[in-house]
Every structure is written in C-alpha cells, then in structure tokens.
Amino acid sequence: MATMTLAERPSTLDTTGIAYLAVEVGDLDRAVDFYSRVLGLELIGRDMLPFCGTHAALATVSGQWVVLTPNPARADLSETGVHQGYRVSVAARAAITRTLLAESIEIRTYTEDRPAEAKDNFYFFDLDGNRLQLVTAKDAASQTAISGIDHAAVQTADMMWAEAFYTEELGLPVDHRVGWNTADYVRARKWAAGEEDMAPGTRRLDQRYTVMVNRKTVPRANMQLYVRAGSSVLGVYLANKHFQEPPEEQAAGAPRIALAVANRGRLDSAARLLASHRRSFEGPVIHPQSVPLVEASLYFKDSGGNFLELCVARKGAS
Amino acid sequence: MAGVQSLSHSGICVHDLKEAEDFYCGILGAHPHAGVNFITEDTIKGRSVHKSVVLEDYLIALALVGDFMPMPPDEQLWGAHGFRHAFTVARNRFDATLGVLRQRGIRFEGPIDHPQAGPFGQSIYLKDPSGNFLEILWRRDEAVAYDAAPVPDAD
C-alpha cells in the first residue's frame, strides 16, 4: 500500500452500528427454535455469510441479524462479561418473559455498571450458555419480539491494548469506563457483602499476591470499557482467566461482531486506517451475488483476538 | 547512616486513573509508562491497580485507592496534605507553563516570589484532579549542576 499522509488517513471507522452478531451454539436446530420461537426472530436462511461455517441467519425487526453457528468445542463464557444486548419494547419484554418462564428458563436480575443499563437488569442464558440481556427502548417497534441489537460485549487479556485499539486506532468514542475509578471499588465491596447482585464479569475477588503488607482477598470491579459504534455500543471486559485466542494469521471466524458501513468507500477507508496502525486484515472482499446478505466485507480482529467485520449490506437484505 | 542515594519514584494515590493520567501526561507533560492490573495475568496475581508515568527521568506511580481519601477543601490550592510534589521548569519556560495551565482551566495560586537569597525564584501551587498538592517552580541556580549523593563505601 502506498504511503499515506496524515490528511489521507481516516480517523474513524464511520460505522452506523452492529449489522449482525455471529453466535456460537451447541445444537443449531435447537438454537434456531429458541431464538425464533422464544425471542421472535425470523429465520431468513442458512449458510448465507462467509466465514461463519454452517449457520442459520435470523433477522430482527430492525434488519440486524443474529447468525447462529454450531461449535461443539466452543468456550464456556457464562461466567465472563461476554453477552449480547437486545432492544425490546416493554410489551415485547413482557411477552418474552412469559415464554421464558413457561420454558423454565431463569430470568436474572443482576445489574451492570454502565449507567445506561442500570435499569435494564433483565438477563437470561440461551440453551447453550450465551448470556442475553433485554434492554427496553422507546423506539422498539415490535410488541412481541426482539426489535434489534443494542450492544455486544467481548473479553480481552489486555485492557490498555483494547483501549488503544478501539479508541485511538479505530477512533470510537468512549461511552463508559469501569475500574479506573475509586467509586467502582467502593461499590465492589457492596457486591462482596451480598448487598448487590452484579452480572458475571463485572466483579472479582483478587487474592493479593504480596506478603509485604498482608495476604488477603480483595473485592474489585473488573475492568470494562464501552465504546460507541454508530447506534450500537461495544463492551470489552478484562478476562479473569487465560483463554485461547485464534491463530494470529486467521482474520475471519466466529464468534464475530459485524459492524455496518454505508458503502464500499468506507471499507477502503477502514482498510487504510487499519494499515496505518499495522493491523492485519482481510479484504475488502467483494462478495459474489450468491452471498445474499452482504456485498462487501473487511475482516480483522481486535487486540484481544475477537473477530470483527465491517460490511456493506446488500440492497434489500436488511 | 543508611546511605540512600536519591529518589527512585513516587507513589501518588488518586481517585481516577484516567483523569490522573490525562492530567500528568496531557497537561504536565509526563509520558505514559505502564499499567498494572489491566491484564489478565495481573488479576490472577492480585496485583495493585495503578498506572505509572515518567516525567523526564522520574517515575510516578498513580495508585488507584480503594477508598475515597479525605482531601483538602476544593478552594485550597496551597498546602501539604501528607506531602507535596514540586516540579521544576526552566526560568524561561515558567510563563509559558502558566499560560498552558490557564488555557486548560487548571486553577493555581501564585506566582509567589521567593527570597532573593534562596535557590527558588517563583512558585505556583495547584492540585491534581484527585486533590493532591503540587508545586511548580523555577530555580535561581538552574545553571548549577548537582551531583548525586556520594556512593557509600561497600564496606
């Protein structure tokens, strides 16, 4: 790639928000049944996207997709901060609640630290241990089903790298930080005392390694960073256990967060942006007409090995 | 005599690592050095939560405290709350430094003139975002090169 001047280098991804989430499940048919019957998503087809393996694509009212792909060796993320947040109307949440209870699926009422989610303590796990959150939104159109994807959270082994990647390199504005402030640690003690029920990945008990002062267990807020990506929010949680990242040379795979951009020119700009920071990526890939949902994509990973995609939706696909 | 040689680093307790780093690096001119407990390995080891910044050859560890510290009143800019860090700028940089602080909305008291016979010329007094007292001064003897404390005999 030719050398760029600073003026030529784009400063941000210019995404409009989450286009789709690729979610790993155990049994594909069982998961399709759950997401369509319980959450009201519409199955629109199978094997419609590259780099998702065998999969089923389901649409929300907003035109965003949830892509379910089976992986029997998927990691158990139920105790981490990894989760998906969906927008629903109050009526739709009530309808989904009735179905969940009829299916004997427990609804969790723990809370998170991000102020925007403080009143949306409505969580449950799908049949494969993926944590879902329902966020009420005034503009949610459906009275019975999930209306759209609000946010998605991943985990990383290095929060400073994540902060540099998402904010300085991709140019996404910070929505909220957790773990940088004393107030977060004061609040963590309320969780340790049983006074607050907090979502997985938000708190931890650190065993202090030092014997210089004293050896003790310390409740702490787990570091979290939220950035705004168009109309969506991406959350990054500090992993509390070592986890296997994908091979360095693999640019595309699942699970994955796909962010929408308006046109192919935005993909070219994003490729220049990533190249300017010496990030690896694949594409922009112009998809053949046999790929019905997206016309072009750029595949890459964040600093923690989480798969990301920028894509241009095919006209009429949303 | 124990024979310590010089200051190695300082730990400054703060209430917010982001605003502290923005202040010490973005305003005073230090450089980010490292962060602890921002990686998985540190959480497993239960290390402290802090960031470190380097100002010239001096390292400051910005330590996030788990409890709010009682701090001096907001309007009090001058004092010693346990300790005070004083930073030096060259005489010909002093006015420019004050200009930057004014431009960035950092409140300070001074400049205060020191006695002619002393080594300090003028000082201003301010606080970091957590309320720790700081001082910025220029020295009349800035051209004088000082040696480190003598190295004690190994015996």
Task: Give the CATH level 1 class of the largest domain in chain B.
Answer: Alpha Beta
Largest sheet of chain A: 8 strands, mixed
Fraction of residues in H or I helices of chain A? 10-25%
* Gyration radius of chain B, in Å: 18 Å
- The overall pLDDT average of chain A reads 92
Q: Return the average pLDDT of chain B rounded to an integer.
A: 91
Instruction: Give the proportion of residues in helices of chain B.
Output: 10-25%
Distance between the termini of chain B: 13 Å
> Architecture of chain A, CATH level 2?
Roll
The largest beta-sheet of chain A arranges its strands as: 2-3-4-1-14-17-16-15
Structural class by secondary-structure content of chain B: alpha/beta
| Total tally of structural domains of chain B | 2
Q: Given the structure, what is the number of helices of chain A?
A: 5
CATH class of chain A: Alpha Beta
Number of helices of chain B: 3
Lateral arrangement of strands in the main beta sheet of chain B: 1-4-3-2
What's the total count of β strands of chain A? Answer: 17
Rough outline of chain B: globular
Structural class of chain A: alpha+beta
Total domain modules of chain A: 1
Which features would summarize this protein structure in a list?
heterodimer; A: 318 residues; alpha+beta; 2,3-Dihydroxybiphenyl 1,2-Dioxygenase, domain 1; eight-stranded mixed beta sheet; seven-stranded mixed beta sheet; 19% helix; globular; B: 155 residues; alpha/beta; 2 domains; four-stranded mixed beta sheet; 3 helices; 8 strands
